[in-house]
Amino acid sequence: MGNVGAKDVPVLLSPEGLRLDGRRLDELRPIRIEAGTLHQADGSAFVEWGQNKVMAAVYGPREVHPRHLQQNHKAVIQCKYNMAAFAVDERKRPGLDRRSQEISKVIAEAFESVVFAEEFPRTSIDVYIEVLQANAGTRCAGLVAASVALADAGIPMVDLVPAVAVGKVAGQICLDLKKEEDNFGEADLPMALVPQSGRLVLLQMEGHMTEEELGRSLDLGVKGCREIYDRMKAALRERYALTPVAGGAA
Amino acid sequence: MRPGPGTYRVGGKIYASVLGLVAERPPLVHVTPLSGRYIPRAGDVVVGTVTDVQTTFWLLDIAAPRWAPLHMTGTPWSIEVGETERYLHVGDAVVVRVENLEATGRIGVTMVGEGLGKLEGGTIVRVSPARVPRVVGRGGSMVEMITRLTGARLAIGQNGRIWVEGSPGAIHRVSEVLKRIDENGQRSGLTQEVEAYLRSTVPDGPVEPEVRPPAPAGARDRSDETDPRPWGGTRGDAPPSFRSEEL
Asked: Closest approach of chain B CAs to the CA of A152, in angstroms?
């Protein structure tokens, strides 16, 4: 990107109310989810969401490493989110940074509230998320991929965890921001939903919006999550060649 | 209806907790998982590999959530404390039975019993634990057919680890067959499909006239070989060699 002067700010919303890529305000980017893409992992998934490409692998429950993290009454959930150096325009310095540590932590905590960890005492469930191509919303894409991978790994949990970001762009509340909207917009609000209970297990915000706008954003995000939830279930059914049952959950 | 394995109840409704198939067995509702690690049950015969050697026990990787300790008293050998590493080394493969499961998640296994013991030679092929019933077939029909048509010896662990021994060609064909079963586990008519595959591939030994599956032309008879291990059988308690028909 380099230096971006004020005059370089793109027109984020057309007079007709369409966004940069022609989407309406409440429209998701195209999303493709594939379960079971890796052979050696216990569960895996690949998510292509707009121009994001994210791979997730789940191992376990297995022996805890390092040992001192072991918990006597439940499994620990360890998550590692990593962005490849080639995932963004300007080469990202590879390895751990504060951003990836934070995202790893919030995603692990989101899963801690849905996984029945007490069923596997003194074990570890390891979740690895690799961002191969980034275009805003990678923590949501990573969480979606990891959630499908957890289901693919046969890990018992309350439900799948769909996630999406809502933001404020050119004064309007928009669903699923892409990179330019994220960079030049006024606010970004990623969230993750447990459809079974309606609880949010991840909610972060950057930027500013009014209380009224926040309320509308949450409603829009929940709607988006439910749409993604259907895609996640479809991906798992495709992997196991299943036909939907009336009222069937995860 | 009450929630059984693979389900949970919230507010009077029963939900699936794992990805699987619903089965109603009054008064319980089960969800049989389609994937996931091997969940040990008492009595299961499993194939494991040694991952660690301690003074009184070995730790085995049986593809379960945790490593399973095999205590030296659970072996057919009389071992002094500290002598464990003379019997089994890291990487050795064994057939053991799950004996007891503790609430702590500890999996107790034993090597005393028919068909249990150390595995010599061969290779281990992995399939999903959910596919093991298909590998065995109804009344053992699938294994019987595979051993008959390939001349390989098989030891099938409930944990999805399958030990195969025989000529390189036989091992290759069995591995291919196991891969097919693993990938097409839900399909019906698998046994015929596998049989057709095995008959269409060129076997490396005599085709049909193998009357006794455990002693095919390709496999070596180990009973005459001198024991290469340090105690060389002088203690009179050498590990029993494993035979597939005992399973």
From this structure: 7
Q: What is the DSSP string of B198-230?
A: HHHSPPSS-SS---STTS-SSSPPGGGSPP-ST
Looking up residue A176, the CATH number of its domain turns out to be 3.30.230.70
Q: How much is the ipTM here? A: 0.87
Q: Give, in order, the Cα–Cα distances in Å from B35 to each of A56, A154, B170, B217.
A: 17, 5, 28, 37
Question: Into how many domains does chain A fold?
Answer: 1
Residues of chain B short of pLDDT 50, as ranges, are 206-247
**Residues of B whose CB is below 8 A from A122:** 66, 104-105
For B195-246, the pLDDT digits (tens) are 888 888 866 554 444 444 444 444 444 444 444 443 333 333 444 444 444 3
Q: Is B105 on the interface with A (CB under 8 A)?
A: yes
Domain B123-200 has CATH 3.90.1150.10: no
Instruction: Mention every residue, 6+ apart, whose C-beta is less than 8 A from residue B92.
Output: B49, B50, B118, B119
Q: Looking at the domain assignment, is residue A3 inside a domain?
A: no
B34 — contact with chain A (CB < 8 Å)? yes
Of A121, A153, A158, the CB nearest to B35: A153
For chain B, the structural domain boundaries read 2-33, 45-119, 123-200
Note whether B36 contacts A: Cβ–Cβ < 8 A: yes
Architecture of the CATH domain B45-119: Beta Barrel (2.40)
